[in-house]
């Protein structure tokens, strides 16, 4: 299933299911790269696994808060990350069922 317009195909965070480990690793890489913070992939994976074990049903935004605390981001870095539309999109709540329904209605409206 594809996400809403502007979201990478197959990339879904939020919604009724918590994000996968791979989705959280990708989100962490995006957030850290956006802030100019260099972390190894192994360190990011360790942070993600620790987060997933402690809060298995948490959202992308909860992960953002966890990550910013774990890497001790300044308020300016947090604001910078949240102002980036790609970062905001990857941590936002998504409703895949609602998005699919809207896309189906729009598709039907275009085709007849």
Describe this entry's structure for a reader.
The protein is mostly helical. The protein contains 6 helices and no strands. Helix 1 crosses helix 2. The chain is elongated and about 55 Å long.
Keywords:
mainly alpha, 0% strand, elongated, disordered N terminus
List the helices and strands and how they pair.
Elements: H1 21-34, H2 41-54, H3 60-70, H4 75-83, H5 85-91, H6 96-110
Helix pairs in contact: 1-2, 1-3, 1-5
Quickly give the structural class.
mainly alpha
Order of H and E elements: HHHHHH
Number of strands: 0
Number of domains: 1
What is the CA–CA distance across the termini?
A: 23 Å
Write a short abstract of this structure:
This protein is mainly alpha-helical and 112 residues long. Helix content is 62%, strand content 0%. Helix 1 packs across helix 2, helix 1 (21-34) crosses helix 3 (60-70) and helix 1 packs antiparallel against helix 5 (85-91).
